[in-house]
Structure formats: C-alpha cells, structure tokens
C-alpha cells in the first residue's frame, strides 16, 4: 500500500494519507477552524479518521488533551502514525473503538468538547459503491446520527460544547436529535459554495444544558469568479487559507 505525506500548512503539521482510502476533505478543515477549546480542556474527536481534526486542534486551540475515536482498525493505526509523525504523543491519544462505547471508556460527563465530522449518508440512502474504508466514512453503517449525538451528550460535562458539520438535508434531524439529549443549539453556520447557490453544508455548535437561543451565520466559500472569499480564508485560518 502506497501512502502520501501532505502538508497541512499549519505549524508545520504533516499528515500521512492513503490515496486509495478515505482522505480528509475541506469540511474537516472548516470544522476544525470553528472550534474553541480552553486551556486545560479535553476535546474528543468522534470518528477521527486519519486524525486531521485532532492534529489541527492541537495547533489551533488551547486544549490540553485530544482523544480521537476511530472504529476502523487500519484507519486508527494510520491516525496513530500521524500523531507520532508530528511528535504529538503527549497531547493526542487515538483509540480504536466504537463511538457508542465512549462513555464506558472515558467516563460520563468527563470532557469539555466533542467534535464530529460524521458520515453524511444514512444507512438506507442507497448503494455503497466505494471501498469498505470509504463507505464506512461516508455512510452510517456502524453508528447513526442519533447515536453520535447521544454519545456526545453522555461524555460532555454540564456546559460542554458539541461541534458538528453536516449536510443541510439533515439539518432538521440534527437539531432535533441534539435538543432531545440536552445539547442546545447555540450557533448555526450555513455554508454556501457560492452566493448564487444554495447552502449545502452547515456547522452546528451546541451547549449541554444551555439556554435556548440560536445565532445564525453564513459563510460563502467562493465568489462568482472562483476565488476564495475573505470570510472563508479567515475561517480556514492558516490551513489552505493562503
């Protein structure tokens, strides 16, 4: 199996990826650049894949500990290699486990931040033509949206923050599931590929047991000439923002 090493363009971070497997997308970068994490906080990356969000959180937030959970053994091993590649063993732990077991492994109400770039497609959304690694990353084969949200609520402390990026077709579903488990939506960012197109993705920030109030923002990625907007460059930060 051949791997490639990509430059994350942030604090010298590198990432090893399998070009024939699931490689991270710009959605993971957008999400990572939306997260706020205080000094001394623990952040958990649900379904961390090859570890891209965990790596970026180490550089872009003040959290003291990052835990990535990944159910696919080979992908978890790759994420562990990426942690070692960047010398971050003292800050990032990668666990090969099921998100549904997070509370058993980490303890209930034990962390301050949970972040997730989940599979976008429901299990019943159609034929899976990708290789198994990609299919598991794109389809809810092992853990669905409700289970992800429930798992996040279980391990978050009172006032903890949950961040998720998803497709707009599932926005109502996501908000409903979060509200049912005391993850109160606080900020919703609608992401437009261009201003002339409909929003196709959103980032949702929820606060456990927060008060009911919701701010709505929008982010346009490209102008009509195909240039990245100033707002998008600011949200990307250093990574891919140059």
Structural write-up:
The protein is α/β, with parallel strands linked by helices and 242 residues long. The protein has helices spanning 26-32, 52-60, 73-85, 102-106, 132-138, 145-155, 171-180, 230-236, and strands at residues 4-7, 14-17, 42-46, 65-70, 92-96, 111-116, 156-167, 183-194, 201-208, 215-222. The strands form two sheets. It has an eight-stranded mixed β-sheet, with helices on both faces. Strands 1-2 form a two-stranded antiparallel ribbon. β8 (183-194) and β9 (201-208) form a beta hairpin. The protein starts with a strand and ends in a 6-residue tail after the last helix.
Q: How much β-strand is present in the residues?
A: 25-35%
Classification by helices and strands: alpha/beta
- On the 0-100 scale, what is the average pLDDT? 89
**First-last Cα distance:** 31 Å
Computed over alpha carbons, the radius of gyration is 17 Å
